[in-house]
Batch of 3 targets.
Target 1
Amino acid sequence: MSKSFLPLAALSASVFVVGTAEYLIAGMLPQVGSDLGISEGTAGQSVTAYALGVVIGGPAMTMLTSRLPRKRLAVGLMLLFAAGSVVCALAPTFGMLVTGRVVSSLSHAAFLAVAMVMTTGVVPPEKTGTAIATVASGFAVATLLGVPLGSLLGQSAGWRAPFWALTVLALAAAVLLAAVLPEQPAPATRLRDEVRVVTRRPVLLAIAATAVGFSGVTTVFTYLTPLLARIAHFSPAAVSGLLLAYGAGSVLGNLVAGKLTDKSLSATVRGVFGSLTGVLALVPFAVVWQPTAVLAVLGLGLLATATIAPLQGLILRYAGAAPTLAVAVNAGAFNLGAAAGSALGGVLVAAGALRWTGLAGALLSAAGLALTYLVLPRARSAARGAVATSG
């Protein structure tokens, strides 16, 4: 067993806990609404509040904690997440529920940033892509298992029970991180160095590629269930099976992309975006026949999270010695892209164009691909410039 195994496993497990929280409540909106005396639509705003906390609060939290030793910060962020989960579990009103969700969300992007930076410190440079994918797989597994299992617990034991479960898991993760993470001092870089890196053109372009490219996935995925039911005419049981296959494919695709990123970052990021654009463009035509619909879902699953490792690798390449804030902002960009894609898909569905969400997603994915071509040719100069900012 390598020295990096336990730290990477602990970070991945912690990411799983944080990743489960984001969409957990989406499967329990009727129970939340009934208990707190609000509509399901109002209850759904707690998902929006969490997303805004990640996009806005995550980078702010990263800046406020930039001078703390990395191990201590990772443990502290998990304890903050646990505290937010307790507030949610005890919330007597919708306002208190939103408060708890926001508190938990503040640790989301900040923890992911710390996890990614610590990951690069426990593996050799040639294994960075694989290590990033290993840690990020916690999110894919959260989508595959954490969210549905949490929703099932909420259905049987009440909507507060999953938040108590998250609290226990977060506390266990904090103990595990404290036990196995190596000591890493606070970065030698100053906060202004971190800010300067984020505002440089190559880093901004890479973050934009994340937001725009990932929005193409969620334009389709958010409405995949009605697409498979209404257009492909799958039964509810078949749709559930396909969603499970999609999640399993996401886990596999993420890990494979990590290994490919170690071999060639530029070829991987372009290959994933190019393939994703093609699959999304074919979705409207594939869903009219069930066998091709199955292939489209499997292809989309394999490629959906395969963007994570190369895109985070892109950020780390250009951020040089001051990567923490850039990674946190990029984590927010994933959430911003998810929200934008879902909103665009909703507009199309409302307009009666459910079948054609794939074409809109393909255009967004192609735009993300185009942005990577603006970034990658400047890799060497960008990397030198980012390192220079820490001097």
Target 2
Amino acid sequence: MNTASVSPAAGSMQMEAQLGWRQSLPHQILSGLPLTLFFPVGVMYGGVLLFYISLLVSGSYLQKLDRVRQSPMVLPILGLSLVSVVLAAMQDVPPELHKEFWPGFFHYQTYLFLLPFLAVPAGQWQRRAMHIFFAGAILAATLFVANFLHLLPVNTLFRSYVIYEGNKSILLGILMAIAAAWMLHELRAHRDHPVWRVLAIVYVAATLVLLAKTRTASLLFFLLCGVLILRQIGWSWRVVALPLILLAALGGGWKYALSLPPPTTCEVRLVQAGPWEIFKLRSLCTVHQLHDFSQGRKVSDDGMRLELFKITGDIIAEKPWAGHGIATWMHLYQQKARGLISATMTTPHNDYLLYLTELGVLGLLALLVIWGGQFWVSYRMAVHENPDTKEMAMPLLMLTIAMMLGGMFNAILRDGVFGMAFMILLAIPLAGMRNRANK
């Protein structure tokens, strides 16, 4: 066989098969890390620590460094870190912020954790990692069902499935949404066992919508399905028609929801009802809270994010370009929100507003450059001649959309629970990608 005709991915797979156990250890551990995301955060960090140790013991340091250096994501990632370092150096940190400054600073370095993952070349481990991620989502769905049937004990391992624990519970829903969308994408590319694949998708998606108790994840799943539909029908008038139909449906649903009386309570944990009733309750509460806030009326605890967004916007307007400084949001917000229900919040539950408050327009642009880079890499994958590379384009696109949407309602990069999970998932499609100039 002519060696020039062998694709880079096929060559890397042959290389992976020939590696010794020590050199293949990073591949094995990285492919298993997606499963740790569905358990307590300590399990995830323990797996990441094992991966770092495996990088050290596996040798070939110059090759690993070269892979990282040639990744198209390196410069955007280092750009965000550079912006945060420069602005931090210019910042005069008051005494009351000394304890919060360094933790806040390191939150802006979350993307640096992606770089060691990029030292692993492309190979069969990528598909293995995706299948392990799918298995984790099915396991998570099963645990949610077991909790609904009162079969799950309240212990450290299963606590996030039994009790709503904020960011960790939201993350579980987002992971299930991404996994279901990835499975739907893979169903198009691989037609083997179609019945089992469809059943798995329906099982995870239904559990997500009815039992996971996170509106962000449900919205994300339907959005990713829309992206797949648009990709399937191609560029035509239908690309415009489909969003218009969806907007018309949302508008009709909005008017219908407002015609119904507002719920007596929006505290889901206080309501004893079936999954579908809970879903309707949260939908009605969202619509009525948005409407009340737009009319200047007081919102309840469930609608405090609207209050968060408004006051944070006023803070941003004071110093829009370079921001107020790292770790300043909580201090500034609590001063302006005294007496309000949102005064105890520790983040604005919105990465865009957090970056604008603390790093200004410069910081937000640095973040958007990274996300724009992810979009660009996914496009390059889509037009690649190698089918293995093409298949990873849509998962990367979906991850980027998930991060951008999640950042509207949660601290995706401010919280290590979200941040590290996304770095692990990003490593799967980004492995082996190089700058065009280095190919």
Target 3
Amino acid sequence: MQADPGIIGPLPYSHGWMWAGLALLAAVLGWYFFVFVSTRPRRAPVPPARFTPPSDLNDLKLAYVQRIDAVTADAAAGLLTARESHLELSLLVRSFARDVTGVDALRMTLAELHGHPLPAVAEAVRGIYPGEFGLEPLPPVEQSAETVRRAVWQWN
């Protein structure tokens, strides 16, 4: 017996409805995840490590003066150019300030050094600036090294 042409079977659902249902389910799950994450208690920020000044300042001064003398000797031997020597001297005085005070003077400009309570370092760096950034002829390395030595030895 043949099927009656007047009866039509059920139509299948559109694929769009399946994707809409999945999108709705994903939105609900996303909402629950957002609420869960946003209402969790915040972690307290980790406090930075406390700076402890060096126990023996004289040993630190002596070590830095020896490093200054090594830069001067390298410049005299021709291993470093005058500009490289001035850059090393600036790095040494800034590193000394960081080791003594904990202030990151390595990344500070001259204006920031003057604004900070580091007057000896600021003056030493100001004296070295012509050798670092100035035009030729550069000041003698020994003169700049003496400025840095004085800043290190006079530190309190």
